[in-house]
Write a structure and sequence with these properties.
This protein has 248 residues and is an alpha/beta fold. The chain is 42% helix and 14% strand. The chain is globular.
């Protein structure tokens, strides 16, 4: 039904002579929509100058996304992943600023959890920042692998405001390596690991989630395979996961 693009890939397409109008037409001709986009603006950092540049980057990314009909954009803790102790109240203020910047573009920034980060790595942290932002457009972008990597055993998945979530990054993770050693490259297709996908999907749907499931994998073994094969396999395994959890 839809795709989740990386804005830097769209930028590269333009730099190589491509036109956003042509890209939008191709997406629409295929019967797809751009439901979400991955971006890396430093909107959350403490340094005022760096944050200012990051917000300008976010504006450019949103303008690009608007040009191809995109609806939402990721807002991860870029630039605040190494040193712990980010003030979450300030993070909430900065997320609110980002949400206001996004309004003219008709693009919705989704507060993203990164499990490897020293900040915004856990569900309690992103829940607090989203709530403290006190903005009607505040929402979350979660990922099965990142929730696990950040310390979740999914006992609190029912606390996720599922109706305020529009995209879930779908993947799975193996039993080994251990949580403190597992990395992006260890992600596997949904259903090929040990994540409690039935429970996650059932709980989110009961909570009001009606969003998009977006396959996100960084497994080098998959990268070595034809893209069409990986996409087809991933789509089939996502559908199987949904059928297992919800029936039909």
């Amino acid at each position: 039904d839809s795709i989740e693009v990386w804005v830097r890939d769209v930028d590269r397409f333009v730099q190589q002579g491509g036109k956003l109008t042509d890209l939008r037409k191709e997406i629409e001709d295929l019967g797809l929509r751009v439901d979400s986009a991955i971006a890396f603006g430093n909107w959350i950092v403490d340094d005022d100058a760096a944050r200012g540049k990051g917000l300008e980057q976010s504006r450019r990314d949103m303008a690009t996304l608007q040009s191809i009909g995109g609806l939402r954009i990721a807002a991860p803790p870029v630039g605040a992943t190494v040193e712990p102790g980010l003030n979450l109240d300030k993070a909430a203020e900065r997320y609110r600023v980002l949400l206001e910047i996004a309004k003219p573009f008709g693009v919705l920034p989704q507060l993203e959890l990164w499990g490897f980060s020293k900040n915004l790595h856990s569900l309690p942290q992103v829940l607090y920042v989203a709530a403290q932002a006190d903005h009607p457009d505040a929402c979350l972008l979660l990922d099965v692998y990142h929730l696990y990597k950040g310390g979740s055993d999914f006992n609190n998945v029912d606390l996720i405001p599922a109706a305020k979530m529009f995209c879930l990054h779908m993947n799975d993770y193996p039993a080994t390596p251990a949580r403190d050693q597992i990395a992006d490259a260890d992600r596997v297709y949904p259903g090929d690991g040990v994540a409690p996908l039935d429970r996650i999907l059932q709980t989110l749907v009961l909570g009001g989630f009606r969003g998009t499931l977006s396959l996100e994998l960084f497994n080098r073994q998959y990268w070595a395979q034809p893209p069409q094969q990986v996409a087809s396999t991933g789509l089939a395994k996502m559908k199987a996961s949904v059928a297992s959890a919800l029936g039909g």
